[in-house]
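Task: sequence design from structure.
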């Protein structure tokens, strides 16, 4: 029976074991609740506030949650790196040590998810309780709960970050960011033009869309590193194929970030070039996947071919006038990022299977065969 960790052991090594990680997450949430509630009580001391909107409880809590998510994720990943260095080995199921820009990109993604998610929740509550206001003490408690929940989930995410969890963070971030940009668009008929129209105004909608695309590009470059690290490669040809796929994903992430860096109204030629380059590169990535990664599951490879066919079909429908450009971009967008999510899940499964094979091989080497045992006994 293992002994329970003391508070001092948890504080010294908060990321060393599963128990310490869970306990550390609870402690961080408790501290976040106290700090956020105290600050909110001072801010809202002047009187009742609205649930959502400028200067509201929802806006204040969402901003606090976003800042908390960024800071907590960075600190938690630092503790994970320190715990890994002390053990001298890494858990094959988790992400290896993240580079500083990987940590920055994923931390900001957590912050944006918290910000937009809690603002959306506040507007839902505002619509449910029309005309209601929140008094100072209640506002402070609600803010503390929101920040504490965010802190707890962020610690759990940072200390248990796997390729599969990273893919879910990417998808959630994109859905939240793009939907927020659509809902806040000043031009209600933006969809009649193209998806990039969301990023051409000077309001919060354009900033949300462009920032979402830029950070999504950074996350794809993170996927390029961690999503291919566990792919088994025992020959020079397999290692070369893995490098090719990693490079293609890296360039795909850079091109995606450039879509947000170069808005269509200011840099039309560059914007169209990088967007077209993404589509071409994605098709090349799928077509060459079987050759570059021979161990890739056959069903996943075939699904990639089906996705490429879908992109070709919607392109033909656009050329014939059946679909407008926005519909084509949304479908292609969904296809590409669904494939990325499945890519991370399949490569993680390949890595686990390779680790199991190595473990079985080690056991067979250590354990003598029955014939050898009989010979020795005779």
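Answer:
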């Amino acid at each position: 029976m293992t002994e329970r960790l003391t508070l001092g052991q948890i504080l010294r090594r908060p990321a060393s074991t599963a128990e310490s990680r869970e306990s550390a997450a609870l402690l961080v949430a408790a501290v976040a609740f106290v700090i956020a509630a105290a600050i909110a009580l001072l801010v809202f001391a002047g009187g009742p506030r609205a649930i959502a909107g400028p200067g509201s409880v929802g806006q204040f809590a969402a901003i606090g949650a976003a800042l908390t998510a960024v800071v907590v994720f960075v600190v938690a990943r630092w503790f994970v790196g320190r715990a890994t260095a002390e053990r001298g080995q890494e858990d094959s199921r988790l992400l290896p040590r993240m580079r500083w820009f990987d940590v920055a990109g994923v931390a900001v993604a957590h912050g944006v998810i918290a910000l937009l998610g809690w603002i959306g929740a506040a507007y839902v509550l505002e619509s449910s309780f029309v005309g209601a206001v929140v008094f100072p003490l209640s506002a402070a408690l609600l803010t503390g709960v929101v920040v504490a929940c965010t802190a707890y989930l962020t610690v759990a995410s940072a200390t248990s970050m796997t390729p599969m969890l990273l893919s879910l963070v990417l998808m959630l971030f994109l859905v939240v960011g793009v939907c927020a940009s659509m809902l806040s668009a000043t031009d209600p008929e933006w969809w009649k033009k193209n998806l990039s129209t969301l990023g051409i105004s000077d309001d919060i909608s354009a900033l949300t869309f462009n920032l979402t695309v830029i950070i999504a590009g950074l996350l794809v470059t993170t996927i390029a590193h961690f999503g291919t690290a566990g792919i088994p490669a025992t020959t020079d040809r397999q290692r070369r194929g893995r490098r090719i796929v990693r490079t293609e994903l890296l360039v795909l992430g850079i091109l995606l970030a450039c879509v947000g860096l170069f808005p269509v109204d200011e840099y039309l030629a560059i914007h169209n070039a990088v967007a077209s380059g993404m589509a071409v590169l994605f098709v090349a990535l799928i077509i060459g996947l079987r050759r570059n990664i021979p161990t890739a599951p056959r069903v996943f490879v075939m699904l990639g071919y089906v996705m490429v066919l879908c992109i070709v079909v919607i392109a033909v429908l656009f050329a014939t006038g059946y679909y407008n450009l926005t519909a084509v971009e949304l479908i292609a967008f969904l296809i590409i990022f669904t494939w990325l999510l499945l890519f991370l899940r399949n490569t993680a499964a390949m890595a686990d299977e390779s680790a199991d094979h190595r473990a079985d091989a080690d056991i067979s080497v250590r354990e003598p065969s029955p014939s050898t045992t009989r010979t020795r006994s005779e």
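The radius of gyration is 25 Å.
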